[in-house]
Amino acid sequence: MTLARQLGVSRTTVSNAFSRPDQLSADLRDRILSAAAEVGFSGPSLAAASLRTGKTRTLGVLFTDSLTYAFSDPVSARFLAGIAAEAELAGYAITIVSAPRSGPPSPIAQAVMDGVIIYSVDDNSPALKIARERDMPRVLVDQRPESGADCVNVADRAGAEAAAKHLIGLGHQRLAVVTVAAGPGESAIVEDSALSSSFVARERLAGWRQAVESAGFAAPVTVSCPVNGREHGRRAAGLLLALPLPPSAIACLSDEIALGIVETLQSAGVIVPTDISVIGFDDAPQARPFLTTIQQPYQDKGALAARLLMEQIERPERSRSPSHEVLPVRLIVRESTGPARR
Q1: CATH number, domain 156-295, options 3.10.270.10, 3.40.50.2300, 3.40.640.10, 3.10.450.50
Q2: Which CATH number is 58-154+297-327 given?
């Protein structure tokens, strides 16, 4: 006698007790699990279920950089935590696939998953092209919106504009911005028209420039870093300090870059913010309590992306317009910004 027949329920109900507990009452699930334990049944075969339904109950995440960076960068790690919390609640696993800018090709073509969250991948990445070509649900995060795809962004342009306006409101007129763009292997001062292959970098650059142009000031000096990291922030600070007239304030693509800049300024005897103000973006844990920044809801962003993807996977027949969600950001003023010196 099968377990389902013994309990007077369907095979689907037994399966849900193991893989989709939210579909059952607590009492019914406990009764099924207790009966299963008595006969030594540990749950339905995942391999068999995958062959039968064509589903693996696995969410894919295509990540912009190395897997090491995914877990070591605080903002990325908390974004992934948001995905993981939603996936675990719904009985899904997660497969994280890197899209490195150099080195071996991404394994995205062979990765087993029911759908994929594409997270901040460069426009020209071969992995992005492959992910688009795979016939599966997808959600874009920190990417340029595409027709027919769900997308989750934060208000990057508005946040960067708010950061620059904060500095301008403190009397700063000589601004520099530090961003990330494909191109030079080292951090470098680039032309004002420099473009990035990162959607987020382009949006934040546009926001900074909008604020500066509206105030009638000269375009900010732009430093391009090859990677979003503290080491490259330190190198960017060195370049800016070497200018004949260094900036009085620096706006950064991320808190990691901003903190690298602060370290170099302080090592050079520059007082932050008395001599130079610095503002970041993200409100990562390491930014507190010193760094002025733009706060973004990175964990909520991951949770929302996971929910949108699972909705596509579980209700493929549902007719709806793609969702484009833009999450709010806000200015957090701390100790790293202050009035410009006369």
Answers
A1: 3.40.50.2300
A2: 3.40.50.2300
- Delimit the domains of the chain by residue range: 3-44, 58-154+297-327, 156-295
Which residue matches tokens 């688009």? Answer: 132
278 in Cβ contact with 294 (< 8 Å):
no
Residue type, 223: V
pLDDT along the chain (342 residues), means of 10: 75 76 80 80 53 74 85 91 96 91 80 95 90 92 93 98 98 96 75 78 96 95 92 96 97 98 98 98 96 97 98 82 94 98 82
Calpha distance 188→216 (Å, rounded): 25
Cα 140–143–146 angle (5° rounding)? 65
The Cα 130–Cα 147 span in angstroms is 17
Structure tokens at 26: 């607590």
CA dist 224 → 115, 143, 341 (Å): 33, 19, 26
Long-range Cβ contacts of 102-110 (<8 Å, 24+ apart) = 106/62, 106/130, 108/60, 108/62, 108/134, 109/134
CA distance readout (Å), 234 to 91, 186, 200, 256, 264: 43, 12, 21, 10, 5
CB of 261 closer than 8 Å to CB of 178:
yes
pTM above 0.85, yes or no: no
